[in-house]
Amino acid sequence: MSETAGTSTPDPDATVVVESVTKQYAAGTTVTALDDVSLSLPRGSYTAIMGPSGSGKSTLLNLVGGLDTPSAGRVTVDGHEVSAESEAERAAIRGTEIGFVFQTFNLMPRLTAVENVALPLVFDGWSRAERRQRARELLDDVGLGDRLDHVPSELSGGQRQRVAIARALAPDPALILADEPTGNVDTETGATILDIFDDLHAAGNTILVVTHERHVAECAERIVHVEDGHIRKVEELGEETDG
Amino acid sequence: MDSRESLRIAVRSIRAHKLRSALTVIGVVIGIASVITFATFGASVQAEIVGDIGDSSAGNIYVFGTPEDEEGFERAFQPVFTESDVDRLGEIEGVEAVLPRGIVQVGSVRQGNETLARQQVTATTPASITPNSVVSGRTFTPGENEIVVNERMAESFSQNLTAGSTLTMVLPDGEEREVTVTGVVNGTRGELPVGQFARQPRIYAPVDPFYESVVESPSAGVRQRAYPQVTVVADPRGIPDTKAAIEAFLAESDARQLSASDTELVARSGSDFVDSISDVIEQITRFVTGIGVISLVVGAIGIANVMLVSVTERTREIGIMKAVGARNRDVMGVFLIEAGLLGTLGSVLGVPLGLLVGFGATRYADVGFALAVDWMVLAVVVGIVVGVVAGLYPAWRAARVDPIDALRHE
């Protein structure tokens, strides 16, 4: 079984390159959440990360998403070395290169659907008219053209998650990061959401989904199994490889 | 970040907690309102007095005696300025007229069977009654039993006094005297500014034959009328020089010799009165501003407190904003604008409240209403500054929130 997976020499054209990344937390004793992990996500790929809680999969997601910085190693997203940037630069990369979709939707409670979708564009300096235009189009695409001015509390779980997906797409990001995207919706709605991800993949987006549900992970092209801070196995779907 | 978007988020957040926001801004409202109230009232009183002194009496110099120890005010109005003093004051360069003023206590004033008890009559010369202060009729003639009255006095009887009305006066020695009203005036030339301010009913009569206070003049050696106060009308352009000349004369006047040694004889111009009244108003304003500042500090603490609560409540929102590209300074901006908005709200509510109370105070004190515009502008600016300063620490706390923890926050 190999400690590293994907390519051992990083693909310069890959959307995400994780090189020998270690993440340690000082919580009384030093806890190693990720231990010398390398991973690369080619442009246009659809990857799922699976693992039990505490395996390090959330840490990996946070590092790739630029929310956190590694203790050692490098993380590169669409050519930006996220791990070396300042807080303000990482914020800008999160806003323009990465679209987050969360298990709990994480919409701004007092903003309408349009305003939520337009929020990343606010920080990227778009004009109000341009932002709203883009947000309307994206909400139309996810089937919420008639819910533009509703606040999240007036929407169902599935509708909220579709707003969140539209928001993730707003800046036309290089990477879509989804953390248990179907974790808070019923099975039927979950299927609709997974269909949207399939469509996004078909349209050429690079997608990384973190999940503990096998059927969600199976929508991806490959499954990266994480355990105890290491990548245990990379499963190419259709053609399973071991190590 | 687009500051209008920060503003929009701030407005939504304040609207979502209306009661909490309203209670928070009360401190700022009270602070701003108290300062505006007294600034408005002060400006109104000042405008009233400056207006009174400014128009008709720019050239007036008031000469009177005042005790140095400030006590025993009644001694200030001893009749010490003799006719000789009046004549010699008139010879000083720049002096246009000298208006002696004496008070005659009258037992009662009667019209028909209507009686007003205990009236004061101001004895003076016709020069005190300027043509443009005469509302109707004419001034009195010296040596005649004629009087003029001000408008308040004219309305004191059920049948209004007009030129030609006759009254019966009971003089201090018990003598009853028939007098004729020759005119109605709206003030006289030599009145002290504070006297005009009070707007009481007044009767004016010629010195002869009404005023009886006599002393022996040390300089002339004969008994002469003597007055407690004299108003010198001077050329307005030369007031300081004329005032100095009057003060120099006072040291060798009859009044000096007739006054107790602890009595100071002073000459005060209209602007001296304005200055001293402005000083009093300024001191009151400073005191109230102090109270206002304390209230604003309390208000600022209230805003800071509520903003800290808000940051904790909205930790998740901060995480969301950071996840979708907000930099620390964007997050800081959102909370600073919200705090500044609370401060602005406080001053925007406080200014009209202060104006309302200030307006009530001017009505109560019977002075014209004047706006203190500079104070209003200052109040709004101070309100915004108070909010922003109070929001600095909470906003800094918000900016430092770790997005990973925040997104996990329930």
Describe this structure as you would to a colleague.
The complex is a heterodimer of chains A (243) and B (410). Chain A has helices at 57-64, 87-97, 113-123, 128-141, 157-169, 187-202, 214-217; strands spanning 16-27, 29-41, 46-50, 72-77, 80-81, 98-101, 175-179, 206-211, 222-227, 230-236. Chain A is α/β, with parallel strands linked by helices. Chain A has one domain: P-loop containing nucleotide triphosphate hydrolases (Rossmann fold). In chain A, the strands form 2 sheets. Chain A has a 6-stranded mixed sheet, with helices on both faces. A 4-stranded antiparallel sheet of chain A has the order 2-1-4-5. The longest helix of chain A has 16 residues, at 187-202. In chain B, strand 7 and strand 8 form a beta hairpin. At the A-B interface, helix 2 and helix 3 of A face helix 1, helix 10, helix 11 and helix 13 of B.
Considering the chains and any ligands shown, give keywords for the structure.
heterodimer, A: 243 residues, alpha/beta, six-stranded mixed β-sheet, 32% helix, globular, disordered N terminus, B: alpha+beta, six-stranded mixed β-barrel, three-stranded antiparallel β-sheet, 13 helices
